[in-house]
Structures are given as C-alpha cells and as structure tokens.
Amino acid sequence: MHASFGLIALLSSAAGALCATVPYNRSLTLNAATLVTPEVVHTFPNGTNMENLAVRASGQILCTIITGPDLFQVDPIVDSPATLIHSFTGYETLFGIAEVQPDQFYVLAGNASAATLTSVPGSWSAFHVDMTSFDSEGTATIDKVADFPDALLLNGMGLLNQAEGLVYVADPFAGAISILNVNTGDHYVAINNSLTVPAAPFTTPLGVNGVHVFQQPDGPLYVYFSNTAQSLLARMPINATGVPTGDAEVVASGIIADDFTFDSAGNVLQAVIGSDEIVKINPATGTITVLAGSPNNTELRSVSAAQFGRLSNDSTTLFVTLNGGNLGAGGPVVPGAVKMLELGTTLA
C-alpha cells in the first residue's frame, strides 16, 4: 500500500517552500560580514538529493542519498571526489546514519519515490555498515539489523547508549521516536508526545526529524529532537536506557528544522532547511545566532544535516549536507552537495 506525501511532504527538502511564512524568534541579528562562507567538499549530479552524514575517526565523511539507496564517502577537503561505499539493492532511499562502535555505522533504508511522491509504509529497515572491511578489502560488510513493519518513514538516527548498542530512530510521519538495539534488532516506540507529532503551523506530515543525545558534565541526560512541521527544537530528560524521566520542553521555535549536532559547550548547531541557514542555539537562553547561509542565496540550499570534523585540524569545521531543493520545495534548485564551514571563533 502506498501513501501519498503531497508536494510539501515527501522529504525534509519540502520544508524549503515554507520559509517565507515563518518568522524567527531571533534575539541577535548578525550582519553579512559576520557570516561564514561555505566551501564545497563535493557536488553531486543534478537531481541528487542528499540527506545525512557521519564523520569517521579518519576524518572521512559518509553521506546518504534520498534519491537513490546509495552510501558515499568523501574526504574532508575542498573538491573531494565521492566514492560509492554501497548501494542497497531492493531499496529506493537512505536516510539517517549513526556510528555506534568505532567505524561501525548504521543506516536507515526504505522505499520512497521522489518521482511519484509516495512512500511504502513498512518497507523500512536498519543496516549495519562495517567500514573496517572497506579500508582493508575495498568492500564494506553490510548486514541487516532489523525490519520496521509498522514504520511510515524512518528519518533521523542518533546514538543513545554505546555500551548497550542503543540508538534512537525518528519516524516523522508517525510522530514517534523508537529505540533500536543494534546488537539484537529489538526495537520499540519510546517517545510519542505533543512535540514529536506533525502539527501546526504546517500541514506537512513531517513531525520529529533529527534526534540526538547530549549531556553536560554532571548535568542531566537529554534527548534533543527537531520537529519540522511544528518548526521547533525540543528536548526531554531521559535515563541511560532512553526512557523519559520528565516532560519535553521547547528549546527554540520559529525554525523549520532538520538535523543538527552539538558543539563542545552544548550549543546546538541546527540545519534550518526552511531558510537555508545554519544557526547556533543556546539551550539555556533560547538565543538563535545565524552562522551561515541565507534565504536570499543558494549556498546552503535546503541544508539538511551537520556534523563536526574529527581531526585535529578540522575540529571547528562543520560539514553539512544539502539536498538542493530537488523535491518540489519551490524556489531555485541546485545540485545536492557536501559543504564545510570553518566556524572558528564563531563557536565562542
């Protein structure tokens, strides 16, 4: 059975059409001279829609494609070539990716068509990608971890508990966050509340999107999640097994948000797909600072995810994926790409 997405509902790129109607709750406005200029790591062919990325300890970047079931690797340098790691036969698209143990990655695959704007509920699966064999043998070892027969669309993925092999998986259509044990394949819905479901201000069914865990030293453990339809970033206190220990709260609103990451101080570096920007959000104050991009240009067109480099020379470099507005979001369309932002002192 196929379920129609609608013109603004297929994937996170669709939110780009909505950016002009949602005001920011900005407490600080930066002038153009302050903004960071993105540099191109790799540009994919026209029509390629990128979704997410993960950075290896080697510094190399793994990135997922929505318009094909393909996992690529690029080097963390300007004008890097892209190497195909694996194409997932029997699937049409890849979404979230997360590293659990060193060089052991997990990706979400399913059947969703950009051409027909349809999804196949129940077609979603999680796969293990062993990159150590790719380095030694030239071929990654791929194993299926679990099928999700009740899933409508699996999108974001974030590490929850490394020792136990637990990850969070977000289903934006169902408005729910599941916990997956990558060692056993067991999974269950752990979080489903008023801030995870798709709701106003938009009618898109993309609710909870990015999902990641963060804890300040000696502070509470939180799961943070973005909600594209509700245009917000929220967080919820949890225990080590991912079970909520308190109510969810809104950290920032007025941002058509996709995936995100954290800096060392606990600020959220958020990809704002609706306005083609990367912003820094202070969870303590809710202050939103624009670091790069603009609704008025295409340099970060439909930016969808962000991760910091892991080498000594790129620890303040933010790598981002762009889906390029390829899926009917309105406005200009550019090729999907991986870009990098040297943030430096803007993180202070």
UniProtKB/TrEMBL annotation:
Keywords: Signal
Keyword Signal attached: yes
Superkingdom of origin: Eukaryota
Signal in keyword set: yes
Signal peptide boundaries: 1-19
InterPro entries attached to this UniProt entry: 6-blade_b-propeller_TolB-like (IPR011042), Hetero-Diels-Alderase-like (IPR052998)
Protein name: Quinoprotein amine dehydrogenase beta chain-like protein
